[in-house]
Amino acid sequence: DGGITQSPKYLFRKEGQNVTLSCEQNLNHDAMYWYRQDPGQGLRLIYYSQIVNDFQKGDIAEGYSVSREKKESFPLTVTSAQKNPTAFYLCASSEGVSTLDTQYFGPGTRLTVL
Amino acid sequence: GENVEQHPSTLSVQEGDSAVIKCTYSDSASNYFPWYKQELGKRPQLIIDIRSNVGEKKDQRIAVTLNKTAKHFSLHITETQPEDSAVYFCAAPGGTALIFGKGTTLSVSS
């Protein structure tokens, strides 16, 4: 999991602003995922991508957008449409696209709305 | 779709005791069940997983059991130590992505 990096570690956003969270992996993994973590809520899937230039909505995609222009990169944009964006955001990747493949997580970005 | 329920939400034990966390799932076709450990402020890390062709898997003090008939799987930690204190998540396949339980906060006091 050391091959997955996220930046920044902490991010502060004013209301009405869009912000982009970075996720990079050098593991040559095909699949990448974004999760949101809130206290007592576990990990909730925002978006995932199984191949370059393709991605799918997860359970809580509203107010978020992603792109997958390169295999190693999967940035997440938190838009102003996301009404409660303060949370811990985790990126993950897996070697293949099967749910049998182990997911490895990045260190996370903590987003706070001021 | 898949639904994963995890219990208990918090668990406090004395050092040296055993701890058991249970998860139930709804999709009988699910065939892979990982467990992740997340220390405070850190990333979740896979500690053990089990596939549906076996009923139990052990790794030192950690074991996972699977009951496909009842659709539940459990994490067992023996001889708990203070460094076992963390949040533990179970997961099961839900379509093309994993569905995670809400987590169990384990506290081990010495």
Q: Which runs of chain A of at least 5 residues are low in confidence (pLDDT < 50)?
A: none
The class by helix and strand makeup of chain B works out as: mainly beta
Low-confidence sequence ranges of chain B: none
Terminal-residue CA separation of chain A? 31 Å
Radius of gyration of chain B: 13 Å
Oligomer: heterodimer
- Gyration radius of chain A (Cα, Å) is 13 Å
Q: Residue-averaged pLDDT of chain B, rounded? A: 94
As a percent range, the share of strand residues of chain A is over 45%
Written description of the protein model:
The complex is a heterodimer of chains A (114) and B (110). Chain A has 114 residues and is mainly β. Chain A has no helices and eleven strands. Chain A has strands spanning 4-7, 10-13, 19-25, 31-38, 42-51, 54-57, 64-66, 76-78, 87-94, 103-105, 109-113. In chain A, strands 2, 4, 5, 6, 9, 10 and 11 form a seven-stranded mixed sheet that branches. In chain A, strands 1-3-8-7 form a four-stranded antiparallel sheet, with no helix packed on it. In chain A, strand 4 (31-38) and strand 5 (42-51) form a beta hairpin. Chain A is globular, with a radius of gyration of 13 Å. The mean pLDDT of chain A is 93. Chain B is mainly β. Chain B has no helices and eleven strands. Chain B has strands at 4-7, 10-14, 19-25, 32-38, 45-51, 56-59, 62-67, 72-77, 86-94, 97-100, 104-109. In chain B, the strands form two sheets. In chain B, strands 2, 4, 5, 9, 10 and 11 form a six-stranded mixed sheet that branches. Chain B is globular and about 40 Å long. The mean pLDDT of chain B is 94. Classes of the chains: A mainly beta (114), B mainly beta (110). Chains A and B meet through strand 5 and strand 10 of A and strand 4, strand 5, strand 9 and strand 10 of B.
